[in-house]
Structure prediction request, 340 residues.
Amino acid sequence: MLTIYDLMVQNQIAGLSLAFIEHGEIRRTECLGVLEVGTTDYVNEETIFNACSISKLLTSILVLKLVEQGKIDLDEDINRHLLSWKLPESDYTWAKKVTLRNLLSHQSGIVDPEDSFSPLHSLAQWPSMKDLLQGATPYCHSPIESTLEPNQEYHYSDAGYCIIQLLIEDLTNTPFSSLMGDLIFQPLAMHHSFFSSALPIAHTASGHHKDGTRTIPSHPLYPYDAACGIWTTPSDLAKLLIDMMQTLRGKGKLGLTAPTMHELMHTKGCNESVGLGVFFDGQGEQVEISSLGWGVGYQCMLVAYPYLEKGFVVMSNSDSGVHQMQGIMGDIYRSFVSSV
Prediction:
């Protein structure tokens, strides 16, 4: 039987880091491979990877924190709190207004423009959320607007999470990254979690293409914090999962309530497998939540059974060229769920 390392060699995966949760605790970690091909800088528990779209789960948790503080409501018109930019009114939003719940579950009626939300071209071109949503940057050539009625169709949307970021910043008059640090990273001791603008390159795994060569630049950055801008470790993400599990028992460090956490794992839209920032499968005690991340040079996967207090996080600094479930992460997933 092939080991994880055998599969890495077979698939030209440069580095891999894993954290496994059992009984609501991190019970095991594995670190394999290197930070960059051609070096002897080995991956360890503190090696940082691009979380890519797993950032959306953290954004959802931050939104729920603000909901519990009474600052926002999941089901009110987002334009009530957007100040520097507003979603244009149209025939699609006349009867139903777009809400945070719609945005978090990718059912807002917003479809991302083609070829949008690429990695940062230059540090000197860091776009503002307002300019991006207005279609005034190279990262999104068309203004963001509704093209469908809310809850009519599911369309995975980075633009939706950019709107969430701007709404939070307009509402609180605080940078999104600062709020995430104060309300999520610090209480959970996620000391190895950063945003693209503050990434400590010395401790970060370089990205690699599916042929095993390093990406150029070595650390592609995404200037969309809420959608895909977080860099972290499997153990830090495992801390978040564990707190979600503890919250369901009334013991979470973030101070969220169990009913609020239930909102994350339930849908009220047109897609029955999409929660708030996560996907889910199954019901009751056996419910599984998951989040995937796939960017230039990186892939990652997060899976948890909140009521069973089990889960795992795997992060890689290689783009395998195939969906996670078709590559090494799918093998890890199938091995894990067979024991659940």
Remarks:
- The chain has ten helices and nine strands.
